[in-house]
Amino acid sequence: MKKYFLAAAVLTVLAGGVYAQEPSIPMGMFGGAPTNVKFDPYVAAPEGFDQEREGIDRGTVELIEYASESVGTTRKCNVYLPPKYDPKKKYSVLYLLHGIGGDEWEWMNDGGVPNIIMDNLYADKKVADMIVVMPNGRAAKNDSRDGGMGSFMAFNDFDKDLIGSLIPAIENKYSVYTDKNHRAIAGLSMGGGQSLNFGLANMDKFAYVGGFSSAPNTRTPQQLIPDVEKTKAENKLLWMVCGGADGLMSNSSRLKAFCDENGVPCTLIEYPQGEHNFVVWKYGLYNFAQLIFK
Ligand code: FER
Q: 212 phi and psi, to 5 degrees?
C-alpha cells in the first residue's frame, strides 16, 4: 500500500496534478469530463483492413534483445519488418507502445494485429517504407505485466531507455534512417500518454506523434506544449483518436482544445461509440501509419 501512495504522490507532481486521486479509481471516472471540442471527421476503415489477406507478401515479426543502460537489464522488444525487408534499402521507424496491462507482446497477441494491418497497407501501397518497433514500455527491472498500478513510475521512466538505449540498438541492428523526420512514436492508453509526453518533449527525435485513447499519464497541454511556436515549427504530425464511450477522452480533448486555441495543427477523431479496446487502437494504427514519413 505504501508503494502505491508513493507512486501516486510522485506522479501527482510529474503529471502536474492529474494523479491527485487514488490509482484504484475506475478508468471512466479518472479522467474527468471531456473538454468540448470540434472533432476531426471520422472515416471508417475499409472492411478487411485488419484481416489476413490471401496472396499478398507478408512481413515478419522478430523478438530482439537489447542492453538497457538506464534500467540495467537486457530488455525484450518485438520488431515488425515489412514484406521483402531489404537491408540495402533504408527504412523509417515507428515506435508503437502498449497499455498499462501490456508488454512487448500486447499489440501482437491481444488483438492489435499490427503485422496484418501493415501487410495490407503495404500491399495497397498506402504506407512509406518503415519498420515497427514494439518495446516493453515499463522501464523497470521487473517489467512484467503484473507490475500493475505500481508500474506508473516505470512507464514514466521509459524515455531514458527509449532514447538512450533502444533507439541506438535499433539503428545498430537494422537499416534505418536516424533523423527525426524518419522517426514516429504512437501508442495506446498508457502508451498513448507516453507517446505524447516523450514525442512532444523530444521533437529533435520524433517528428510524428500519435496518441490512441491516451491515459491520465498524459501531461497537461501546457506541459506538453510549453512553446507553441517551437511545436508548430518542429512537429510534423500530432494525431489522436479516442472512443466516444471511453472515459479517458478528457486527456485527448483537453490537448485538442489547447491546440485549436493556439493554432497548433492537431487531429482528434472520436471513434463512434468506441470503447477502451483494440477496435479503436487498430483504427489508430491503420490511419496513423498512412500519415507518417510522407
Ligand atoms: C487510469 C485509467 C487507465 C490510469 C491509467 C489507465 C494512470 C491506463 C489504461 C491502459 O493503459 O489501458 O486511471 O491512470
A: -110, 115
Total residues found in the chain within this entry: 294
CB of 167 within 6 A of ligand 1: the answer is: no
Q: How far apart (Å, rounded) are the C-alpha atoms in residues 180 and 209?
A: 11
153 lines ligand 1 (CB under 6 A): no
Residues 26-72: pLDDT tens digits?
444 456 889 999 999 999 999 999 999 999 999 999 999 999 999 99
What's the 64 CA to ligand 1 centre distance in angstroms?
27
Tell me if 15 CB under 6 Å of ligand 1: no
Query: For the residues of 14-80, what is the DSSP string, one character each?
Result: HTTTTT-S-TTS-HHHHS-SPP---PBPP-PPPTTTTS--TTS---EEEEEEEEETTTTEEEEEEEE
Span 227-277, pLDDT tens digits: 999 999 999 999 999 999 999 999 999 999 999 999 999 999 999 999 999
**Quick check: 91 and 177 in contact, CB under 8 A?**
yes
Q: Is residue 190 lining ligand 1, measured as CB closer than 6 Å? A: yes
Residue 73 CB neighbour total at 10 angstroms: 16
Which of ligand 1's atoms lies nearest the C-alpha of 11?
7
